[in-house]
C-alpha cells in the first residue's frame, strides 16, 4: 500500500483508446496514468494485469465512463475484484454542475459530459474541444449546455488517405509538425493536420463568441491529438486530463 491517502480510480473507455488515471481525493493532478488500445473482447485477467500498477495505492473510489457499453460489466467486475469497491457509472439520473436537456442527456457520450463538467469548473461560459479519434466540441453558456459538434478525427482521416494513396504508404507523417505551408506532399499533409486542428478550434470559438458577445468565454482543449494548436486571436488552456478530471468531479458530486 502506497500510503493512507485516499485515491480515486478514473476510467475513460473510448472507441480507440482507454485511459485510466488515479487522483488523490483532494488534488487535480494525476498520480499515475496508463493508456492502451480499447479491446472490445478484453477480460478480467487482461485488465487485472494492466491495472496491477495501481494496487499499491489506497483506492477507495472509482468512476467508469464508456462509449463502449459492452465493456462496462468487465470493468465493474475487475475493479470490484481488485480494490473491493463498486465503480460509479454515469446514468440518466446523474447530477452535473451544468444544465443539460433530456435529449442530449440520453445521447451525449460520457466523455463529453465529463468535458462539460470540467469546463464549467473553469468558467460558466466555456467551450471544450477534444482532439482524438473524433474531434468533438461542447459549448456551455451560463452553466448550461448549448450544444456540441463532432467530426471524424484527424488520425482516422489521415490513415484512410494513406491507404488510398500508394505514394504515401511508405512515408512518415509528422503529426507534431507546426508548419503552416507545405513544400511537398508530405509537408503539405502535415500542414493540413495543423490547420485542421487550429481551424476547428478557431471557428467553433468564434461561433460561440457570436452567441455570447458580452461574456468572458474560456476555451479548454484536450485529447491525444491536442498539440501544436496555433491560435493567436484568443486564449485557451490545454489540459490533457480535462476529461478524467471531469469524471472525478462528477463522481464526488454524486457520492
Give the strand order of the largest sheet, numbering strands 1, 2, ... along the chain: 3-2-1-4-5
Please tell me the total number of domains: 2
Rg for CA atoms: 19 Å
**Average pLDDT for all residues:** 86
Low-pLDDT regions: none
Order of helices and strands: EEEHEHEHHEEEHHEEH
Main sheet attributes: strand count, strand direction, barrel closure? 5 strands, mixed
State the helical fraction. Answer: 25-40%
By DSSP (H or I, 4+ residues per run), the number of helices equals 7
Query: What's the CATH architecture of the largest domain?
Result: 2-Layer Sandwich
User: What fraction strand?
Assistant: 15-25%
| CATH hierarchy class name of the largest domain | Alpha Beta
| Fold-level CATH name of the largest domain | Nucleotidyltransferase, domain 5
Head-to-tail CA distance between termini: 24 Å
Count the beta strands.
10
User: What sort of overall outline do the alpha carbons produce when their principal axes are compared?
Assistant: globular
By CATH's scheme, which homologous superfamily of the largest domain applies? ATPase, nucleotide binding domain
- Structural class computed from helices and strand pairing: alpha/beta
Organism: Malacoplasma penetrans (strain HF-2)
Subcellular location: Cytoplasm
Function: Catalyzes the phosphorylation of pantothenate (Pan), the first step in CoA biosynthesis.
Keywords: ATP-binding, Coenzyme A biosynthesis, Cytoplasm, Kinase, Nucleotide-binding, Potassium, Transferase
